[in-house]
Structures are given as C-alpha cells and as structure tokens.
Write a structure and sequence with these properties.
Shape: globular
Number of strands: 0
Largest sheet: none
Number of helices: 7
Structural class: mainly alpha
Order of helices and strands: HHHHHHH
Distance between the termini: 20 Å
Helix content: 40-55%
Strand content: under 5%
Radius of gyration: 15 Å
Length: 135
C-alpha cells in the first residue's frame, strides 16, 4: 500500500497536490538516491506471486537487503519517517499498517537481525506491501 502512495507521488506533476507528497519527498531526500535506488531495485523484482517462502529460498535476497542497508549509511531519518507514517495514517487509513500487523516474514534474514540490523525497509519501499504470507 505504501509503495502505491509513493508511486502516485512520484508520478505526479510538480503542480499536483497529492496528500503526503512533501513527506515522501522528505524521506527520499533524507535517505538519499543510492539508498532509495537500492531498495527500489529489490522491490521491482517482487510481484503478486512473491511469498515469504520464495524470499527465504532466494539466496541473494538477504544479501541484497544487507547491501542496501550499507548504501543507506547511518543517516537518522526517524523524524521524516514518522511524519510520513502519520500522514499516511491520516490521509490513507486503508493503507496504514495497524499496530496489530505482524512482521510480514518472521525469521527472514535472521542473520541481519542477529547482527543488530532491523530488516524493515524504509516506508517508501516497504516489502510488506508486496509480500503474501503462506502459499
């Protein structure tokens, strides 16, 4: 859902007034082009048939995520991420994750988690928008 909002913002003309446009642009600016491009490349490979099981079987998926985390560096984008999340909750309530949402793919990329890296993509490229759990 979040990816659809980001796509709408990216596809909008400079004069178009789209809810959360400023927030999306702020998170993109904070994260930087290399970071965004890295996650976009991963997300573009996902489709409606992507499942947690298929990602777990993909030997390159977690390495790609790790590479993106390196590309993103150590920037603190917490404030713009919170602003984007708040904007989405306000303007797109059906797209906002609920507090009861579980991690989309529990156990995926455990090694990164063990190393202290949270495997949660930045909001604009949130894999949970694309990944189905189960078969």
């Amino acid at each position: 859902h979040v990816a659809r909002i980001v796509n709408a913002v990216e596809g909008a003309g400079p004069e178009e007034d789209i809810a959360c446009k400023g927030e999306v642009e702020a998170i993109f600016e904070c994260l930087g082009k290399p970071c965004i491009d890295c996650f976009v490349e991963i997300v573009e490979k996902l489709d409606e048939s992507t499942t947690c099981e298929s990602l777990a079987a993909d030997t390159e998926f977690c390495s790609a995520i790790d590479g993106c985390i390196v590309a993103c560096g150590t920037k603190d984008c917490t404030a713009p991420a919170i602003e984007l999340e708040t904007c989405i909750e306000t303007n797109y309530p059906d797209a906002a994750p609920s507090s009861s949402d579980e991690e989309p793919c529990p156990g995926l990329c455990e090694k990164l988690k063990e190393d202290g890296v949270a495997v949660k993509l930045p909001a604009p490229t949130d894999v949970s928008s694309f990944v189905k759990t189960g078969n």
